[in-house]
Write a structure and sequence with these properties.
Two copies of one chain form a homodimer. The first copy, chain A, is mainly α. Chain A has 16 helices and two strands. Chain A has a single domain, classed as Farnesyl Diphosphate Synthase. Chains A and B meet through helix 5, helix 7 and helix 8 of A and helix 5, helix 7 and helix 8 of B.
Chain lengths: ~325, ~325
Amino acid sequence: MSQNSPFYHLEGLLGEDVMFLNATITESFQNSEALIPQVSRYLIGAGGKRVRPYLALGIGKLFHSASPKRFLQAASLEFLHTATLLHDDVVDHSEQRRKQKSSHLVWGNEAAILVGDFLFAKAFSLMVQLENPAVLALLAYTATAIAEGEIVQLHRAHDLSLSDEEYIAMISGKTSILFRAATETAAMLARQDPSVAQQCGEFGLNLGIAFQLADDVLDYDSDQRTLGKNIGDDFLEGKISAPALYSYRQSNTEIRAFWQRAMSGKRQKGDFERALEILTQQNILPQIQQRALDYAEKAIKALDCAVDSPMKTALTHCARFAASRSY
Amino acid sequence: MSQNSPFYHLEGLLGEDVMFLNATITESFQNSEALIPQVSRYLIGAGGKRVRPYLALGIGKLFHSASPKRFLQAASLEFLHTATLLHDDVVDHSEQRRKQKSSHLVWGNEAAILVGDFLFAKAFSLMVQLENPAVLALLAYTATAIAEGEIVQLHRAHDLSLSDEEYIAMISGKTSILFRAATETAAMLARQDPSVAQQCGEFGLNLGIAFQLADDVLDYDSDQRTLGKNIGDDFLEGKISAPALYSYRQSNTEIRAFWQRAMSGKRQKGDFERALEILTQQNILPQIQQRALDYAEKAIKALDCAVDSPMKTALTHCARFAASRSY
């Protein structure tokens, strides 16, 4: 994590909480088959930014949470997320993740699928230990919705006719609702009123949407070689994302035909360069960056539910950073 | 299901419970992406024997359970099992399941992985609705142990030096603990004492081991063309199971070398026929069948915790059938 990242600053404010989170993660793998910590650490250990658990712990600190359960909750979020990554990489045939070879290429699809299943199950085991039915219900609902979101994406991955609303719903289902669950359940564990918890959920949800839109931009941003992903991944997989959708909507018949062909898998040499050219001509990426910043501001507005504090400021910076990050 | 099967008789005794189970399963897919009910019904609908939910509902009836939660519990068991099947088929590259083409060959690995994830998550959502912390804890523990069991199997799938105990532990981790969880949590939901619930768990566990040993036999039983699996699947995947282990232990150097070569993937034409020949000469399959029957009797003994009733008799027959089934 770069020292300039607001998440680095957030980590500093979390203090000992980070140590307790690490201990909870490590303990979860004790006595496990050797393959499990190997694969998991490959992802959770190395380049993992731990965005979701840090935001959850941040919300906890914002409300001076004294619940030791918050470390179980934070760890379970990271496990759920990591399980999703493992299965995503198999489904998408990705070659890189967080600047290293994808785990399914290192250990094989079999290990990636089964360790993913283990992390899913472990996430639920930790959630059960929270002994909080309302929190548990929200997390179980979220896990189901994420799985369904992945299937919707599989189904509509090449559909350039998606409206803006449909696209935001799709990325919410896939990505942002885990952010919402992270921050909302953190507030619940900190014994906040339902209305406050819901506002915290709005903070997470909108930050998550900003985060995903920024991710979409990065995949088409040729200046961004710092990203731990292959540039052009979405394009090469024919997976529609905000840049393709925005451009398609603002294009004439010829350019629409280009996107349709390219996204249907009938790609030709030089197509990605052509896509970048179109995006530059139409000034698409700044439009999406602005949209991401709007969601970040919506996230920040939701934090009005908390009194001012260094932690609130840190979370505010994280939201803006999520929208404009370069990695 | 054959009308001679004790499970068919069990289904009859369950009466309306079967209807409520079906309704719970169908409701769970309402408003879901179309792919989810399609893939799930392909497995749950058609050839699915619903062994786990029927045993759970049977235990419920044995103790006159009035809890409407038992349908949620039974459905969640079937979802968890179906999720495992979907992922197993991808991991094992199986071509057939329940006499039909494996779902990953019909819809692709992507759909099999993601619908499996959805069913896992849905299973947990249903479990959460049971609102019973002890039941939930046991089910979450079981799901984690199953995932770990799958990984252990991936790791030791070709290891002919497994002791009998290690092998039983391996199939328990992979298969039988879900049977245990099914019957133990059914008794818990029926408000039975912990000691009675534990006995019911023993019933499920031992029936599950008998079930898996019978499955191992069927895969090498050339007379059994009625089975909805490819005969010789385990052998061709180099996956050790009871027949290979039993034969290996009772063999001279030459036959041991044969098993080692065949199980390490260096197979030659005619190897499966040679394996069948060896098993016949050594009289291996009847030995394993006897072992399966021993576990069935252990299962039946555990039912001493309940007073005699038609349901108890039906469950007894199911245990013996699990050990000696021909499909």
